[in-house]
Design goal:
With about 70 residues, the protein is mainly alpha-helical. The chain contains 2 helices and 2 strands. A two-stranded antiparallel ribbon has the order 1-2.
Length: about 70
């Protein structure tokens, strides 16, 4: 994972970029899981969404670790 990303002269930490990407992917997954009726099987929806976000963010961090 690289340290910083420059966008139009402004430096952002790479983890911030990954967090925004993970939020977008998680939002899409939440919509998909809601349409499939998955949340009827989940005890605590918010806790499930947070765990899903952490898993997606962790996946992005592992994938970009070699940069």
């Amino acid at each position: 994972m690289i340290g910083e990303v420059e966008i139009y002269g402004v430096y952002f930490p790479s983890l911030l970029i990954l967090m925004v990407l993970a939020f977008g992917v998680t939002a899409g997954l939440r919509i998909l899981l809601g349409q499939l009726g998955f949340y009827k099987l989940v005890w605590h929806r918010s806790l499930m969404n947070f765990a899903l976000y952490v898993i997606v963010l962790g996946g992005f961090v592992v994938l970009t670790r070699g940069w």
